[in-house]
TrEMBL record:
<comment type="pathway">
    <text>Protein modification; protein lipoylation via endogenous pathway; protein N(6)-(lipoyl)lysine from octanoyl-[acyl-carrier-protein].</text>
</comment>
<dbReference type="GO" id="GO:0016874">
    <property type="term" value="F:ligase activity"/>
</dbReference>
<dbReference type="Pfam" id="PF21948">
    <property type="entry name" value="LplA-B_cat"/>
</dbReference>
<feature type="domain" description="BPL/LPL catalytic">
    <location>
        <begin position="40"/>
        <end position="224"/>
    </location>
</feature>
<protein>
    <recommendedName>
        <fullName>Octanoyl-[GcvH]:protein N-octanoyltransferase</fullName>
        <ecNumber>2.3.1.204</ecNumber>
    </recommendedName>
</protein>
<comment type="function">
    <text>Catalyzes the amidotransfer (transamidation) of the octanoyl moiety from octanoyl-GcvH to the lipoyl domain of the E2 subunit of lipoate-dependent enzymes.</text>
</comment>
<feature type="site" description="Lowers pKa of active site Cys">
    <location>
        <position position="156"/>
    </location>
</feature>
<dbReference type="InterPro" id="IPR024897">
    <property type="entry name" value="LipL"/>
</dbReference>
<feature type="active site" description="Acyl-thioester intermediate">
    <location>
        <position position="144"/>
    </location>
</feature>
<keyword id="KW-0012">Acyltransferase</keyword>
<dbReference type="InterPro" id="IPR004143">
    <property type="entry name" value="BPL_LPL_catalytic"/>
</dbReference>
<comment type="similarity">
    <text>Belongs to the octanoyltransferase LipL family.</text>
</comment>
<keyword id="KW-0436">Ligase</keyword>
<dbReference type="InterPro" id="IPR050664">
    <property type="entry name" value="Octanoyltrans_LipM/LipL"/>
</dbReference>
<keyword id="KW-0808">Transferase</keyword>
Amino acid sequence: MKHELLKLNQLNLIEDTNPDKSDVLSSFAMDDTLCMSAGESNESTIRFWVHRPTAVLGIPDSRLPNIDEAVDYLTNQQHDVIIRNSGGLAVVLDEGILNISLIFPHGKNIDIHEGYQAMVSFVQWIFEDEPIEIEAYEIEDSYCPGTYDLSVNGKKFAGVSQRRVKDGTAVQVYLAIEGSGSERAELVRQFYQIGKNDEETKFTYPEVNPQVMVTLEEVLNKPMSVEDLVSKINRKLTDNGVQLTKKVLNEQETEWFEKRLNMMKKRNEQMNSQ
């Protein structure tokens, strides 16, 4: 946690880790709300979130030539499907994946790469006691490839995205903890194969290779759970002098949240009607 943005004495804490009590649209609306709040309160927040099986698509994915059939495939595989409001391409969420959002104030004064690097440093710090070297560079044949893919020995277990609203920045990471990375990647590979249907596209979609995607329990060759990792992170923060204060939305924040959630729902109405 050496990064300048993470030299904090206090963090608000939100744990939305019960997959039966939250949905992905609410999660993105919540991070937008916390960005708006951070800009006014000058407070930082860490939020953990876990969801039922969901394929989170990027805007370019919605333009696949055979998108209707591709979405049908995902729903037939018991995955909900939504389009997110931040950048990137398709990712898979489920109960074995922990999402972490770090929300900072004054986002406009923070270089976008600084936000990404803060999350990279944070994840490396979380696992500094494990015998692995976590690197950040693009794994081109992973799903949702990007400059700040996190990998061990060339195999990706996490991806980082960033969302800026008003004067707040939310840096989000998904950490594949439990299960099989290659099985999740195969789901996305099939989605693109069906969605492209061998047609030429202006946008270059990833040629997903399931063998380059792993989970942390596969990398570490030992059982891990999302619950245990959340406890570890909270304990590690507290042991390093960070005061964690459970966050409850106030009346203004609740109003912002409802507006952002409605925006997300409207964006997804067409997809949800399929």
